[in-house]
Design goal:
The structure is a single chain. With 189 residues, this protein is mostly helical. The protein has one domain (2-186). The protein is 56% helix and 9% strand. The protein is built from 11 helices and 3 strands. Strands 1-2-3 form a 3-stranded parallel β-sheet, with helices on both faces. Helix 10 crosses helix 11. The relative contact order is 0.17.
């Protein structure tokens, strides 16, 4: 089960992405669900130890591993907070792996398009990754240019249709935190 900071739009990126990463990690026919109840509405809520413990207690019979996926938002301490939550739940016998999206989940959705972004928009991948607000600065203009803004998940669903097993290799190279997530999931196979 994937625990996002806000599932409303993030689910359209996370479900297909985590499914492919889980397969890459050696999980056969992964059953990936995005937490909707309770519905997280902030990174603070998603990182709250009591909230996570409650989620784990409620759903641990149905899911072997929980994946916590939140935005970095240029906070250099965010991954440490995620790691702390994973350690706390591990002490209670719950497998939680967590990765922080540099800088937002929408960057993961842009990763399969890095070549197009460079060629068409003259955007450098390193600049996209370094931007504290890449959703507004890069993702939204890209989605508008594609004409996907009115589609499911404000274009996220359509963007993720372009994620394939082949393009996943490039995504894992461009987003080291996703390669680490794959390795973390592989350790739970």
């Amino acid at each position: 089960m994937v625990i996002p900071e806000d599932p409303v739009n993030d689910q359209y990126v996370l479900r297909p992405l985590i499914s492919l990463i889980a397969e890459e990690a050696g999980i056969v026919n992964p059953r990936v669900a995005v937490l909707e109840n309770p519905r997280m509405q902030s990174v603070t809520q998603a990182l709250d130890p009591q909230t996570l413990a409650s989620i784990a207690s409620r759903y641990k019979a149905r899911y072997d591993v929980f994946v916590l996926a939140v935005d970095a938002d240029c906070d250099p301490n965010r991954q440490a907070a995620v790691d702390d939550r994973a350690e706390e739940l591990a002490a209670a016998g719950v497998a939680l792996v967590g990765r922080v999206a540099i800088q937002e989940v929408e960057v993961w959705a842009l990763a399969p398009f890095a070549g197009e972004l460079r060629k068409t928009f003259k955007w450098q991948w390193e600049a996209i990754r370094a931007e504290c607000d890449p959703k507004e600065v890069y993702f939204a203009p890209f989605i508008r240019a594609k004409g996907w803004g009115a589609m499911l998940g404000r274009g996220r669903h359509e963007a993720m249709k372009h994620l394939t097993r082949r393009s996943l290799k490039q995504v894992l190279t461009r987003c080291a935190e996703l390669a680490q997530l794959r390795d973390d999931l592989a350790s739970h196979v």
